[in-house]
Amino acid sequence: MKMNNNGARTRYSGLAQKGTGPGARSSHAITVVGHKAYAFGGEFSPRIPVDNKLHVFDLEDQTWSVAAAVGDIPPPRVGVTMAAIGTTIYIFGGRDLEHKELNELYSFDTCTNVWMLLSSDEVGPPHRSYHSMAADEQRVYIFGGCGNAGRLNDLWAYDISDRQWIQLPSPDESCRPRGGPGLAVAGGKIWVVYGFSGVELDDVHCFDPISEKWTLVETSGDKPSPRSVFSTAGIGKYVIIYGGEIDPSDLGHLGAGKFSAEVFALDTETNAWKKLKDFSDASEQPGPRGWCAFSCGKIEGKEGLLVYGGNSPTNDRLDDIFFLTPSLEEGK
């Protein structure tokens, strides 16, 4: 197989869907626990939340179901984020039917199907939507997004043992407030990648949770063009990004901008970007899109990026699911 720079390549697999799934949507969220993916929120028509069901996709038999959830069930919302630690899912924020920014943190226990409201109102991060979320083994991290009075660039952590929010230091003015950024944990650090601040951005910032210091990262290599609302995953020492909006619509959230179909990987040890050549069959390629639901996951023991739905260049919401398997080292 012919390979491009440094052997970096990727392959997509389109996943079949059995059962009644969530259908087409964008501005939603998905996260993986074991061999199941959990999807929540989103819109079909711009800015109108679809539902508040927790849809479950079995990655092994590729069948959809709806969790028989009880407890503090979150109301419908768009621009919401999800992450999982162990068998517990966490969702934060979003925007409701009245376009109000939200700041509740909920947990969902995938063993008991119980939702629990963990914080709201004056506790924790300010209200926001179209922010970003990532997690390590102990904390859930929230960065940026669209707040009540404009875009944000603050970083918060929720400690699952102490059950408390921690406001971490904010970056300096080099990290502009932004919506739709990439956020990933890689190499023990928190990475903020690109986003939208009124224009598409192409900067990278890194937060070290030990020293609590921010760094503006000078990157090299095959650098992606400025973009936002792309799919992001931290895999090993790499931050993987796929797609995203590279030219915004004049209609804002009501329209579709120009989207990318490219895949890039940032090596967080060398700070070098690689563009991953796609070796998928044409029928397996997801094409250009943004505003997707995405998560790290494993299928057949291979770690990769799960992408579900999103918005297309024709402003149609999508309902397909793809799994990206990157190969980033020579000979693999």
UniProtKB/TrEMBL annotation:
GO molecular function: enzyme regulator activity
First and last residue of the signal peptide: none
Iron is among the record's keywords: yes
Domain of life: Eukaryota
SUPFAM superfamilies the UniProt entry points to: Kelch motif
GO cellular component terms given for this protein: cytosol; nucleus
Cofactor: Fe(2+)
Location of the region described as Disordered in the Swiss-Prot/TrEMBL record: 1-26
InterPro entries per the UniProt record, alphabetical: Kelch-typ_b-propeller
Pfam families in the cross-refs: Kelch_KLHDC2_KLHL20_DRC7
Keywords of the record: Iron, Kelch repeat, Repeat
Keyword Hydrolase recorded: no
One annotated GO biological process: glucosinolate metabolic process
Protein known as: Nitrile-specifier protein 5 isoform X1
Organism name: Elaeis guineensis var. tenera
Gene coding for it: LOC105060307
